[in-house]
Structure formats: C-alpha cells, structure tokens
Design a protein that fits this description.
With 403 residues, this protein is α/β, with parallel strands linked by helices. The chain is built from 15 helices and 13 strands. It has a seven-stranded parallel beta sheet, with helices on both faces. The protein has a six-stranded parallel beta sheet with strand order 10-9-8-11-12-13, with helices on both faces. The protein is globular. The two termini are 24 Å apart. About 1% of the residues have low confidence.
C-alpha cells in the first residue's frame, strides 16, 4: 500500500455542533495533510459527539473538545446569557489557534461572535480562514429576535446580519451546504469563485439498514408496532403540534406509535400533553439515546419525521434528514418545499413533504405511508445516500479549494 504524501497544510477545523459526519471528513483529511486538529464544543449530551474519542488513528490527527463554561443548556433560550457563554468559548478557541499556529482555519456551525474571534486569531497567526456556512446565523437571529422583541429585536437582528456579512467578506473562502445559499451570499458582495458548494452528508457506516425488530425495540415495547419517529433536537424552529395531532389521530390504533426522541422545549411540551390528554399509550417521548443504540433506534422506525417552522425553512438544512436517508426508511417532512432537504427527499422519491403549517396534508401523507407496503421509498432513501455520501469523494472536493 502506497502511503499518501502529506501536504504542507496544518488545519484547525472547528464545528460548534460536533456533528459526526464532519469527524469523518477531518479523519479523511488527515490522510493528506501535515496536521489536522478538530475542535468542538464539549457540552452536547446528544449521541452526535459520543464517538469522538477515536483520535489516535493518525499521529497527525487530534480531536480537541473545548469546554463551555457555565450551564449552557439552562441559558440556551436566554439570548444575553447565551451570548456571554459563547463569547467566552470563542476566546478559548482563539487561544488554541494562536497556540497551534495552523496554516488554515475552517469553522462550521459557529455563532457570529465565535466566528469573529476565530477569524481574528487566524489573521494573527497568518492562517487562511474558511467560513463553512451551515446556517445563515444572522438571519436566524434576526428572525428570532424580531418575533420576541419587535422593533428592538429587528434592530439587533440587523446588527448580527451585517456582522456576519463583514466576516464572510473577510474570509479567504466560503463553503455553502446548498446552492440555495449562493444567492444571499452573492448579495453580500461575495465573488462567485470564492465559494464552493459541499452538500452535507451522513456516515453510511454509522447508519446501516437494520431489522425493525431488535433489542432496543423490544425493550421499549415497540416490536411489531408501526412507528412514526422523530429523532433530534426539538427547539424554537420545530413544530411539535404536528406530532401531537398525529398521536391524537391514532390514539385508538393499538398497532401505531408516535415516538419522539428529543430534548428541548418542544419535547417538554409533548411530554406534558401526552399526560394531560392521556396519550401515553400512543405518544412516547424519550430523551436522547446512547450512541451505541442509535442504529437500532432508527431501525425501529417505520416512518422518519422531520419538521421546520416556516420562518426557519429557508436558512436551515436539518442534518437529521441525511441520517434518515441512510436508515432506509420513508421520510415524512413538514417544511417549505424550497428547503434543500425537502427537495432531496422529493427528487429521490424517498418520502412525502408538505408545508409546515399544512396539518391536513401532513396527516394524509402519514396515513398513506401507514397503508403502503412495497418499501420502495425506504429503498430509494438508502440508494440516494449510497450515491452521494462517500466521504472520500467529499474530501477530494474540499482539497480542491484548500490546495
């Protein structure tokens, strides 16, 4: 076997979300670069970062968990307190960059104030800065603050949008996860040749197609049931009412369960309503599950559900949908048709999509999936994942703009 020649680049890669698919990329990049450090926030109790300990595979590859001071989960929905903790976290990242002196800094999923501190640190050590746009954070903040604080919120939101614009224009390269992001970034003044589209993916090996009846499904009393399943964070941009209405429809059907594996305000709401409306037999709300059972959790599903609030649909691409595709189950999405995840699902014929406020269509599609039995949509989902989620091909595309 021929050992790949290492490039001269020392890469400092940061992902605020600690998404597993990005770890697969940085491990691949370590095959062809002098050094790769993958930094991430050490606070998400989600299964996303539970496998991040495997950092000894390559001597030039290191994973760097960075602590978030304070109880971040407790203040997550208080913007001023959250801002303070995130800024302190950004200072720690900046210190790490100055200490390691990379030649390239790549940052994904980070709030604007974290990106700002990292970009300055990169400039201080003479490193190129690559802004990996997962969400248009400024637009997201503007939407949330305007809805909560009206005129004052809109003014604060505009400040964040302009701040993000300045950071993007000062970056050496921009990565966008969808062609849909190109136009708003071009409108900021960014040149076309400074952008590269790298669609998100999921780890095929981590999400194999497995049998519905398994140890986890038996432990949860779900073996032999038709399970509509939602898995992931349920925060401000999601619509838990859809899942509640779905459970109401099937409350008298012993064969059907609505399984919600989530944390956040939406999950708390559903847990409360399940008790108040006596839906405990149909609506099952569970916390995030350990990483070692995630494969069986998704396999237990008959249909996998993802939702987005209408205001969130144009700036958020739910990564859970990509994991769903790997699992080989049909998808039921309630999100704007313009959302890239919705477009993928429809183009691949991997499930149904409706607008997020269209309850009637959502329930009609659910009933259709309950009564169909050919498995074609699930097979199409896996087929799409196998055709698009090869991390070696993705790392090759990334190396084009790094070298």
């Amino acid at each position: 076997m021929v050992t790949p020649i290492k490039s001269k680049h020392r890469i400092f890669f940061h992902d605020f979300g600690a998404y597993q698919f990005l770890f697969s990329l940085t491990k691949e990049l370590a095959e062809t670069h002098e050094k790769v450090t993958h930094a991430y926030v050490e606070l998400l109790s989600v299964s996303r970062n539970a496998e991040t300990a495997d950092s000894g595979r390559e001597s030039n590859y290191r994973q760097l968990p960075v602590e978030m001071d304070g109880d971040y989960q407790a203040v997550k929905y208080s913007f001023p307190k959250r801002f303070s903790l995130e800024r302190a976290y950004g200072r720690k990242l900046a210190e790490a960059i100055r200490r390691e002196r990379p030649s390239i800094v790549i940052s994904s999923n980070a709030p604007t104030h974290v990106q700002s501190l990292m970009q300055k640190a990169a400039n201080d050590v003479g490193a190129k800065f690559v802004f990996w746009v997962q969400d248009l954070y400024g637009e997201a903040v503007a939407s949330v603050l305007t809805s909560k604080f009206s005129i004052a919120g809109a003014a604060a939101g505009m400040f964040f949008k302009q701040w993000e614009r300045r950071l993007i224009l000062k970056s050496d390269h921009i990565v966008v996860i969808s062609e849909a992001f190109r136009e708003p970034i071009r409108s900021m003044g960014c040149l076309e040749d400074s952008m590269t589209t790298v669609e998100n993916w999921a780890d095929l090996e981590r999400y194999p197609v497995r049998a519905q009846e398994n140890e986890w499904s038996r432990q949860q009393g779900l073996a032999g049931k038709f399970c509509f399943m939602y898995s992931g964070t349920m925060g401000l941009k999601h619509n838990p009412e859809l899942l509640l209405e779905l459970a109401k429809v099937y409350r008298d059907n012993e064969h059907v369960r609505v399984v919600v594996i989530a944390e956040g305000p939406g999950a708390d709401f559903l847990q409360e309503q399940a008790s108040v409306l006596d839906l405990g037999g149909t609506l099952i709300v569970l916390p995030f599950q350990p990483i070692e059972v995630v494969q069986d959790v998704l396999a237990t599903s008959s249909v996998l559900i993802a939702t987005l609030h209408p205001d969130a649909g144009h700036y958020c691409v739910p990564s859970k949908v990509l994991s769903y595709l790997c699992a080989g189950r049909p998808l039921l999405l309630a999100m704007p048709f313009s959302n890239p995840a919705a477009q993928i699902t429809q183009d691949a014929r991997a499930g149904f999509c409706c607008e997020p406020d269209d309850l009637e269509s959502f329930l009609e599609h659910a009933d259709c999936l309950l009564n169909q039995s050919d498995g074609a949509m699930g097979a199409n989902a896996r087929k799409y994942a196998e055709a698009h989620f090869d991390v070696r091909d993705i790392s090759t595309r990334v190396n084009v703009f790094l070298n």
